[in-house]
Every structure is written in structure tokens, then in C-alpha cells.
Amino acid sequence: MRDLYEVLGVERDASEEDIKKAYRHKARQEHPDAGGDSEEFKEVTAAYEVLKNPEARANYDRYGDPRGPGGGGGGGDPFAGFGDLQDLIDAFFGGGMGGMGGAGARGGRSGRRGGRDAIVDVALTLEEAAAGVRRDVEVTLPRECDTCGGSGAKPGSSGPTRCRTCGGAGEVQQVRRSVFGQVLTAGPCPDCEGVGQAVTDPCAACRGQGRREVTESVTVDVPAGVDDGTRLRLSGHGEAGRQGTASGDLYVRVRVTPHEVFERDGNDLHCELRLPMTQAALGAELKVSTLYGEEKLSVPAGTQTGDVLALRRQGMPKLSGGGQRGDLRVHCRVETPTRLSEHQRDLLGQLATERDEEAPQGADSRGFLGRLREVFGG
After folding, report:
1. Which of 63, 297, 338, 364 is deepest in the core (most CB within 10 A)?
2. What is the pTM for the complete model shown?
3. Are residues 268 and 250 in the same domain?
4. Same domain, 231 and 296
């Protein structure tokens, strides 16, 4: 029997949080619907069932068996009594990990497979993301066949019958032996492919599938405040299931295009404000463009490059609602004047002299009036 800590890839002194993270990582890796090994998945889940339970973990650390001293006698299953494994799998993965967007095909504990989830992108400007928008998106997905009504059977025929192999469950179960004893595994029925029904006289339009590919427009309401990568779920708008089984969900993934002025950080927005040296030194009252119109911004005297001024509630709306917004943070950048006239250079030179600062290279510290006196012999 492999060491349980080794199975999860953690140290023996790992915290509960470390064990939980390791389990989720390993379980997603090894889940059969994600292309993993079903036996490895069962082993990983069984190890987690023991190590997440403080009492069972203590017994395992001390006696090598989660049930305590003598619990492993007779070579039975040392993990019996730690809950129904399939319930755990269903609770953790929601019935499977297949399908697009990471959500699985629909179906209950019966194992009958429904349609897969689908995902489509919608592009928004930052202004649209801030205001919220209703958008029509075009999708091409399997939809219920309008000839047979989704049954997959030829109109007028007796219709689908229960699959003899799985008895209508859509899955077949097998008992396999592993390092932890006998483990019950389940997989899609190979004859009906998880549907649970067999069609002897198929519909000619959909070839017994009960669905046909259709291109259609779906309306999605995008709430104000969505961020790039946000996924909106439209329940039942994914792929139609075969032969009348449930449809999957459609996930609309928001893509917000970069803005030429604003950068987003959570609910806050950032922008750069270029200030002439005089405004930065003396202070100013300016009008600044925001996503919602112009706002008055007070620039205090002595503002330096790198100073950040905030316009409250001029950022992005919070998805939680309530009309709350983040802030707009204005990053100041003081610009040094270039291409000065002679008079302007003289003025700056006089300023440097009055402030007891060394005159800038190339500036005449005598000033304009001093040079006039020299010319006219004053």
C-alpha cells in the first residue's frame, strides 16, 4: 500500500489547507473526464478522505490504519466507512469535468449524459463594461431536431427504447481491485454512449441524434462592472443533449479591449496627467475627462512627478451592485519646458538667482537688465 502522503504529494506535517490544495490539484489531473487515470483518481480521493479527517489522520500516523489499532486486521478495505466515494466525486466536480469551459455534461446520478457546455467570447470597450450592455452574440451549436422533436426516432415510429446494456442508466459499473481494495468504477455505456436509450428506426434529419447544428443569435445582458475574463452563464443555452437529454450551459466570456487613456486595477482606474512646470509649482484647477464626463481636479501647489491625485467614485462600478464605484487615480507627470525664448531663459535664471540656486548651464545669471546696462555703458 502506498503512503497516503506520497499519494497526495505532501509532507507528513502538511497543514489541512496544504492537503486540500494538493488534493484538488491531483484530483483535477487524474479525473477520467479530464483524460486522467480513473484508478489514480480513486486512490487520490481515498487518501484525501483519510487525511482531511483529524482523527483518521492521527490513527493513520500512529498505527498505519485510519480506524486505529487493529483496524486493518483481516486485509479488508482500510477506508471503509469514510463516506460514499461517488457522492464525494459528484459534490467536488459537479458530475464531471468534461465539456467546454470546465463544466461537465449534464446528467444526474443516473449517469445519463446531457449536452456539453459551450463558450463564446464577446468584446466590449471599457465604457461598455462600465455602463453594462445588452449584446447579441452568434453561436453555432447542436439544437433539438425540429423533425423528431429531439427523440432521435423517425416520426411515426415506436420511438426510443431503453438501452439493454445499461438498463437506461447511461453508465455501466465495474468492480476493480486497487491498492485500497475493491473499488467501484463507472463509465459511459459503450452501446448508447451515455444516453440510456436505443433508437432502432432513426430520424433521417438528425440520424438518430435528436439534435442538429444551428446558427442562432443569443441575447446576453452584461452587467456593469464586468472585467476582462468574466464569464456569464446562460443556463440551458449550451449544446442540446442527444435524444432529448438535458442541454448544457452557454458561457459568455467577456473580453474588454485596452483603453487608450485608462488602465484598470480591480474597481479603480488609473490615468496619467501631464502638468506644465508652472501649474505644478503654483497649483491649478483643471477639468479631467472620466468615463462619465468631465470632473474638476484640484492640483495642489508643489505637485511633483509621481504624485497621485484621486477622483472619488469615478472608477468602475462594483459587480456587487448598490451604485458603488472605485476611484480614478490620476498620476501626475511634471513636464520640463523646452525650446525657451531668450526672455523665458532670463526669467528662469532670475528665479534661480532669487532661490539661491546654481544658475542652469547656458543661462545668463546677469539677467536681461544687466546685459542692457553693459551694452549702453550704464
Report:
1. 297
2. 0.58
3. no
4. no
176 shares its domain with 212? yes
Amino acid symbol at 81? G
pLDDT, tens digit, 9 for 90 and up, residues 351-364? 889 888 865 555 45
Place of cell 487615480: 329
Cell of 216: 442562432
Residues 128 and 209 in one domain: yes
Range of the domain at 21: 1-97
Confidence (pLDDT) at 113: 63
Specify whether 218 is located in the same domain as 278.
no
CA 280 – CA 285 distance, rounded (Å): 11
21, 4 in Cβ contact below 8 A?
A: no
Bridge partners for 331 per DSSP: 272, 308
* Residues 201 and 158: beta-carbon distance below 8 Å: yes
Pairing between strand 133-144 and 268-276?
Answer: unpaired
Extract the residue ranges of the chain whose pLDDT is less than 70.
1, 32-36, 63, 68-113, 178-182, 358-378
The CATH number that applies at residue 306 is 2.60.260.20
Q: CA–CA separation, 87 vs 337, rounded Å?
A: 71
Quote the number of domains for the chain: 4
Query: How far, CA to CA in Å, does 62 sit from each of 12, 57, 70?
Result: 12, 9, 12
* Local structure of residue 5 (DSSP, 8 states): H
